[in-house]
From TrEMBL:
Keywords: Membrane, Transmembrane, Transmembrane helix. Residues 434-501 are annotated as: Disordered. It comes from Didymosphaeria variabile. The keyword Cell wall biogenesis/degradation does not apply. This is Uncharacterized protein. Residues 469-484 have a biased composition (Basic and acidic residues). The chain crosses the membrane at residues 6-25, 37-57, 69-92, 193-215, 273-293, 300-318. The lineage of its organism: Eukaryota, Fungi, Dikarya, Ascomycota, Pezizomycotina.
Amino acid sequence: MNTDIYPTLGAAIAIFITIVYQAYYMYTGGSLTGSPWGCLIAISMVVGEPILRTALAVTTAKSCDTNEIVLPLSFGWLSHAVTSLLPVLAGVRGLMPEPEIDCQIVNMKSGKSRKNKSWVLASMVRDLEKETDDSVGGLNISVYEAGKVNTRAVGDRCPYTLTNFTFWVQFVPITVVELFRISHPKYLFQDSALILLLVFFGMCLSILTTQLSAWRAEKFTARADGGDKNVYALTRGDGHRHVFIIRNCHGKALNLEDLAVAGTSNYDWFGTGGGYILIGTTLGWLAFTVVACHLTRGAALLFGVLALGSVSNIITAACPADFFRRVAQYMNTLPGAYKRNQLVIKSPCPIDLTFRESLSHGNVMEALKNLETRFPGYGEKLLKIFFPTQPSPEDELFWANAKAEINREHTRGAEETKDGNNQVHDEVVVEPEELEEAMGDAATPTSSSAFLVGEEQGSLQKVAEEDDNVAKKNQGEKERRVIEGEGTSPKSAYLKSRRRG
């Protein structure tokens, strides 16, 4: 469990005990009888949950400098708390909302595509589409380079400025009303203190929910690229004008295929402490709603505070990153905007993206051909998405030639790599000491020239031995003839006749 939330947790428990005690005391005394505004508060706590969930998805798991982002009091907190118990009891992840738009991700190396299920990537596509020029029909292909995960929300400090500003502004009407009632004792009643306690208690519950570690675990569960420099394409498919190619250029850049899966994998809620926090906040929001709907006086003020927070959440959830960028640029022009406090938007996305170039054409096929010419292999991977049927003969010839050229490049690259390895191997075999020894031996009789002389002498000796063998063989043949009487001399005939007799 995050130790930073311990003070908030202790404050929430103390305020909860105080609220229960005072509400019970006032209820038994007949002071809590309910009002129409109290009924509206009860209804508002169970409506608007999708807006609140999206606002939480935008602002959580991020930090702006040293300031934490928290959401103000608004409608829908009780409904969100009860819904959050489903993944807790099931032991899976499920805090994030469903993707806002349907899109798919394509691996530009393997050509494999899959449907995106990540809210982060869908939100990123939506924001990038808002910032891309739509004046050109056909297809617009934007190339980005991705770095590591951005540690800020939808911008640098604007969401912090909006949500936290609303968070603290909610104290203003409460404080003004309390000061007015203290200065005018005839307007002082017990409900005012209870309203102030309810506001403090609701803000503590909001802080506990936004600081859960499960938000980061669910939003950014993906392997790091690890230097593979993978390339991905994000698109909404055929019929849409935009394709965003993201090239990983950082070793800590995320594998976007892993991020797109966003599976309901197991999560140890109670081991991390998040399960206990969500169960406790659910009980807290239930008590908040029960007490608020029984308020006799001051319920309208509390309802106004909740409505103000809901307006802030709608802006946070609906407006794209470009809106916050324009707000930041305007705030930097105001008097007193010192350089150290300037609002700078580094990236519109949770992942740091750097724009490199754009390829656009009024004809989709021509845009893909331009992409293939600029980045060989990229256009061919997207061809099946935008042209699932058979292309025309001319286009088919172009893509066949492009594929053949890529194969030739791969073959040439493999041969160059092989030759380079062989060359490196040869260079490694000839050690510097061996090379020096060989150069020293060249000046001595035992060098390569001496080796040739020795080889020639061996050949001459072999020839001489063969001649001796032939001579011995002739001599033996001659003696055989003499013994057998094959000779023509009288002495030979005499010796032969005598041996027979």
